[in-house]
Structure formats: structure tokens, C-alpha cells
Amino acid sequence: MNDTEQAIKALIIESLNLEDLSPDDIETEAPLFGEGLGLDSIDALELGVAIRRKYGVNLDIDSEEIRGHFESVASLARFVSTSSE
Fold first, then answer.
1. Is 0.85 surpassed by the pTM of this model?
2. How far is 18 from 22, CA to CA, in rounded Å?
């Protein structure tokens, strides 16, 4: 697991108050919403704000492209890595 993926897992736990989870409990390729981690739309907004604050990336929450970046920790890590270069 790379450092960005680990940092995003920690950010998910911190920003969504998921203290009962550790980064190792979150699968890198598993969906963040629905069947995977089970996040909802409120969680998506909170996570988006946390990502924007930590990494300084611009997020258009109405964009289908952005929604795709929030599919998993891996896709979010790729987005953050390419957007903050």
C-alpha cells in the first residue's frame, strides 16, 4: 500500500469519526459506498471537504468524473496524486 492510500484511509477514519476502524480494516480496492465501506451522501460531502482541505484539490461534487474518483481508496489516491502535482 502506498503512502497516499494509507493517508486517505486515515483521513476517512478521522473525518467521518470511524474510530472503530483502523486503516487496515479498509480495503484499498473496495467500494467506499454501498456494498463496500457503506458510506452515504453525507459522508461523501464530509470526505470531499476533508480531501479539499488536506490536499488543496478542487472538487465539483456534481461532476460524474469526480464521483468516479470517490469509488475506492485506490481511485481517490490516484486522483489526489495527479491533481496535486
1. yes
2. 8
SS3 59: coil
- Cα distance between residue 74 and residue 20, in whole Å: 21
**Domain of residue 39, CATH code:** 1.10.1200.10
Q: Residue 54 half-sphere exposure, CB side, CA atoms within 13 Å?
A: 18
Give the whole-angstrom CA distance, residue 59 versus residue 67. Answer: 10
Query: Tens digit of pLDDT for each residue in 20-76?
Result: 999 999 999 999 998 889 999 899 999 999 999 999 988 876 677 888 889 999 999
Number of domain units in the chain? 1
Q: Which three cell numbers stand for residue 28?
A: 484499498
